[in-house]
Write a structure and sequence with these properties.
- The chain has about 325 residues and is an alpha/beta fold.
- About 35% of the residues lie in helices and about 15% in strands.
- It is globular.
- The structure holds (2R)-2,3-dihydroxypropanoic acid.
- The site of (2R)-2,3-dihydroxypropanoic acid has 7 residues, from loops.
- The site of (2R)-2,3-dihydroxypropanoic acid (DGY) has 7 residues, from loops.
Length: about 325
């Protein structure tokens, strides 16, 4: 039997690419240059499955295909707001993602950002590298103590709960959360997390607010000028979720005006472009979407895609089917 034709839109870890080569008639993106929507649309007509990732734009235009050859978009990454799932459904294409395997590393990075922003680590490193450090003194680069504070989680899913564990057990922080969906009591009990009825309640009470909800239309600019004003002037905002959840201009203004103390950001609306004003904010830590960027996690994400592809080609429901 001839091998199924599979297209992968970006470079993946070598071991996973080698396995794909063994299993499928695979086309890899050796150049790693992002594909256009039109190229993805063409691929849906020419391949049995397409494997996009979070930096691709698989929107309604890319999915405007009638009876495509590919009936499967096996995406590499947990977030899938880059895929118009309604349009995929209309075109008869299933969609899967790669949950669970990146929760710990993404949570680790949320804590990295919390500490970097609170303890001014980015500023400090810039000072040293610029040869501007004049030595220890009692008033130098004073930050904020996070230990014993309140860690507010918006979106208490897998990654939010892992971040909560680190904040609670690592730094003795009290955990509060808001999630629009019910959370099993035993999961909240792991960190003694207390539910709050609204986003606003969390923003008012938390010393650190960590964002862990999906992106897309439903949470677009959820953190706005008005909501930033509810936060404590001493507080820190951390975003490892999706860039569009935060109004970047509003955040830059809030950071400059001292509405909040600092921010740690791993994701940006329209990345890799960044709201220009954010570059000027010394109190913002800016990382290039590193949440899941560890060798073992990036491989595990690849294996997860492979198990979804395998199930799909066997005629089973992919274990991580989301649409
Ligand atoms: C995801 O998987 O959605 C991340 O943003 C990339 O690790």
């Amino acid at each position: 039997m001839s091998k199924k034709k599979v297209l992968v839109t970006r470079r993946w870890p070598t071991v996973v690419e080698e396995k794909l080569k063994a299993l499928y008639d695979v086309t890899l993106n050796e150049s790693d240059i992002p594909m256009t929507g039109a190229e993805i649309r063409e691929a849906l007509l020419a391949y049995d499955a397409v494997c996009p990732t979070v930096s691709d734009k698989v929107d309604a235009a890319a999915l405007d295909v009638t009876n495509p050859r590919a009936k499967m978009l096996a995406s590499y990454g947990v977030g899938y707001s880059h895929i118009d799932t309604e349009a995929a459904k209309k075109a008869g294409i299933q969609v899967s993602n790669t949950p669970e395997v990146l929760s710990e590393c993404t949570a680790d990075l949320a804590i990295t950002l919390m500490l970097m922003a609170a303890r001014r680590a980015g500023e400090g490193e810039r000072e040293v590298r610029a040869h501007k450090w004049t030595g220890w003194r009692p008033t130098h680069m004073i930050g904020t103590k996070v230990s014993g504070g309140v860690f507010g989680v918006l979106g208490f899913g897998r990654i939010g709960r892992e971040a909560a564990k680190r904040a609670h057990f690592g730094f003795g922080m009290k955990v509060i959360y808001f999630d629009p969906f019910p959370v099993k009591p035993e999961l909240a009990a792991e960190t003694g997390a207390e539910k709050r009825d609204t986003i606003e309640d969390v923003l008012r009470e938390a010393d650190v607010v960590s964002l862990h909800m999906p992106g897309g239309k439903e949470n677009y600019h959820l953190i706005s000028t008005d909501r930033l004003k509810l936060m404590k002037p001493t507080s820190i905002l951390v975003n490892t979720a999706r860039g569009e959840v935060v109004d970047g201009v509003a955040l830059a203004n809030a950071l400059k005006a001292g509405v909040i103390k600092g921010a740690g950001l791993d994701v940006f609306e329209g990345e890799p472009r960044i709201v220009t004003d954010l570059y000027e904010c010394e109190n913002a830590v800016l990382l290039p979407h590193l949440g899941s960027a560890t060798a073992s996690t990036r491989e595990a994400m690849g294996w997860r895609v492979l198990s979804n592809l395998e199930a799909f080609f066997d005629g089973r429901t992919p274990p991580d089917r989301v649409a």
